[in-house]
């Protein structure tokens, strides 16, 4: 009889837990719907009521902290978010949410301490490096910002945020290489976001800066073999083409010659996924359309739209390929930037 009662209590507990899980998942979805509509008070109401029934639910608490943050109720957001980030099982999102609250309150010292703690726990999470670097940038610690973004690129090469920030950083320095490299990686990792047109414009301007004078290597980090080979190869192939102006058409010609030469001389010693992808597009007859996709609208939107009409087959072939492929970099072995370390 006792065994039967014990079994019944176990089944009852499991049923209650299952019902709680179902109710909590429903509350999460309902609250997310209100958040998408910008109705943060209703999201907060739903999440607080759900937590009355399922007080330890981690996901409910994270969403509640985020909803308070979106509503600009930073006191309540801090009250929920900080204990979550201090838990032993704190996940990356917990630290991200607390970071947002600290930034909103301009509590930079505590925010920096929190990111250091988070990165000790999750040393390979690119999003934490990206956000930590952005916080350091806000306090004008530019040197430390780029160190964090570079660490993020090295540790988690498929997180796009670090490339976005690093490309913008290098664009405003004397460097002529890394804004072009990181910018192009970014637009392949994040091809259709609100940030993509911004980086495409930076990419076009970076190439203009690259060819401003005839000596591409002047003032560059020529001790870095990858940088040296990149600059020497592109300079040997540009010559007359660059002298007629930097346009999508001239860049397509220069970059075609660059890829052919790079794979003839340098690819074995310096394998690089971005250049592999360019070679793949070149062999597939899509490299011109790819260059138009990157540089065309940034150079002249009307001219780009006209190009896509005149070359509809090539444009459609590339667009179909682009939308159905995943650009992914290897986890190790292709990080060549050393100047910021």
TrEMBL record:
Residues 1-19 form the signal peptide. TPR repeats lie at residues 126-159. It holds the Pfam family TPR_19. Keywords: Repeat, Signal, TPR repeat. This is Tetratricopeptide repeat protein. It comes from Pseudobacter ginsenosidimutans.
């Amino acid at each position: 009889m006792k065994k039967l009662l014990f079994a019944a209590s176990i089944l009852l507990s499991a049923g209650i837990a299952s019902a709680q899980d179902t109710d909590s998942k429903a509350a999460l979805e309902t609250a997310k719907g209100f958040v998408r509509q910008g109705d943060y008070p209703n999201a907060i109401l739903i999440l607080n009521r759900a937590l009355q029934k399922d007080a330890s639910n981690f996901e409910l608490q994270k969403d509640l902290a985020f909803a308070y943050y979106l509503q600009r109720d930073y006191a309540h957001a801090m009250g929920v978010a900080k204990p979550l980030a201090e838990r032993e099982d704190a996940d990356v999102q917990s630290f991200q949410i607390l970071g947002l609250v600290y930034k909103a309150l301009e509590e930079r010292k505590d925010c920096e301490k929190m990111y250091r703690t988070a990165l000790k726990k999750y040393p390979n999470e690119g999003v934490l490096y990206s956000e930590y670097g952005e916080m350091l940038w806000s306090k004008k610690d530019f040197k430390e910002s780029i160190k964090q973004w570079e660490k993020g690129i090295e540790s988690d090469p498929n997180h796009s945020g670090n490339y976005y920030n690093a490309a913008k950083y290098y664009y405003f320095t004397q460097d002529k290489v890394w804004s072009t490299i990181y910018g192009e990686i970014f637009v392949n990792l994040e091809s259709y976001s609100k940030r993509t047109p911004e980086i495409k414009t930076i990419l076009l301007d970076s190439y203009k800066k690259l060819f401003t004078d005839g000596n591409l290597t002047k003032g560059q980090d020529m001790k870095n073999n990858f940088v040296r080979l990149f600059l020497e190869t592109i300079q040997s192939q540009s010559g007359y083409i660059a002298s007629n102006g930097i346009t999508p058409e001239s860049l397509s010609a220069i970059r075609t010659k660059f890829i052919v030469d790079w794979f003839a001389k340098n690819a074995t010693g310096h394998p690089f996924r971005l250049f592999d992808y360019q070679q793949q597009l070149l062999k597939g007859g899509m490299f011109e359309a790819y260059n138009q996709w990157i540089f065309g609208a940034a150079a002249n939107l009307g001219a780009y739209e006209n190009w896509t009409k005149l070359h509809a087959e090539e444009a459609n072939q590339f667009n179909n390929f682009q939308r159905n492929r995943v650009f992914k970099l290897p986890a190790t072995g292709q990080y060549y930037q050393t100047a910021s370390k």
